[in-house]
Structure formats: C-alpha cells, structure tokens
Amino acid sequence: xxxxxxxxxxxxxxxxxxxxxxxxxxxxxxxxxxxxxxxxxxxxxxxxxxxxxxxxxxxxxxxxxxxxxxxxxxxxxxxxxxxxxxxxxxxxxxxxxxxxxxxxxxxxxxxxxxxxxxxxxxxxxxxxxxxxxxxxxxxxxxxxxxxxxxxxxxxxxxxxxxxxxxxxxxxxxxxxxxxxxxxxxxxxxxxxxxxx
Length: 196
Description:
Blueprint: H1 7-21, E1 43-45, H2 53-56, H3 60-69, E2 73-74, E3 80-81, E4 92-99, E5 108-114, H4 116-119, E6 124-131, E7 137-144, E8 146-153, E9 159-164, E10 170-175, E11 180-186
Antiparallel strand pairs: 1-8, 2-3, 4-5, 5-6, 6-7, 8-9, 9-10, 10-11
C-alpha cells in the first residue's frame, strides 16, 4: 500500500507525538546494530488490519477494561476514545488485536483510537498493552499511527514493532525488558533514513 508524505508530521513529528501521546517515539537514540540481534522486517501481524477474530469476540467487559487501560473515556453515546474534544463523532476506540505475542500465556492487545480529529493524517493512534500476572494491563508502547509486529524479537520474546506513520521513513522498535527502544529508521527498501 502506498504511504503518502504528510509534511506537517515529517516537519515536527517528534513534537507532535510527544505532545499528543507522551510517546517516546523520537526521543530515544538508535541502538547500535552490533548491540542487538538483526531486525527481520517480515510482518507476523500487520497493523493495518481492522480487527482480528479474537478481538471481535471479546466480551464487552474485557473491551471496556482494555479501553480504560489505554486511557480512553466512555462518551455519552457509548463510544470510547481519548479524543474527547471531537464533537463530530468521528473518533472511536477499537480493540484491533488480542493474542499472546510472546508466549508467556498472557494476552497482549492493540487498542486503536480511530479518527483524524486528534490523529491528523495518520488517522489513528495505537496503544500496545500486556496483561500482568494480576490481570491488570500495562502499556508497553504507544504511537500516532499503526503498529505491525515483526518476526524478529527482543527481550522476553516480545516481537519488534514497525511504526506505521505518514511519510516514507519508518521507525522500528525492540523491547529491552523495560520499554520499546528505537533500533532503526528505514525506508521501504530497507535503507537507513531520516524522517525529518
């Protein structure tokens, strides 16, 4: 699928991501290639999917718990969103993925907040959650845009993430045991690039 260049995001993407989501999208330095296993860009789970069958089948109470863990509010019309300023009704939460990604027996989830009012040209923001042993949810990663999970993996066997953002230069992140850390910025041909 072609990806369009969004000049406002390319010019100030770090500031936008930090201001809107408090995401560590651009603040981290790129990990030295010699310090970590090779990045394998083959997608295990494509972030552009609407919703997996498992996510569609979730009980309402589980979806509500995921929306709350993602920082969303339930609006009077029943929609969940972080974008409560959108009075057009276009912003809406969606549980896109619900599965055990690292084989520890507990599920991870991707919660998206769909809509351009707060997400601009990206059209969505994504929050990756992991269920703790006590049943509560922890935020592993968030960004403005989509997330795809890759074949290569970091600590605790969490898959690497490709951040699907507007533009032609995409950041890749690896779990280091505490956070998803930026490890590369690559174009569609796998060449190093700079999104700014």
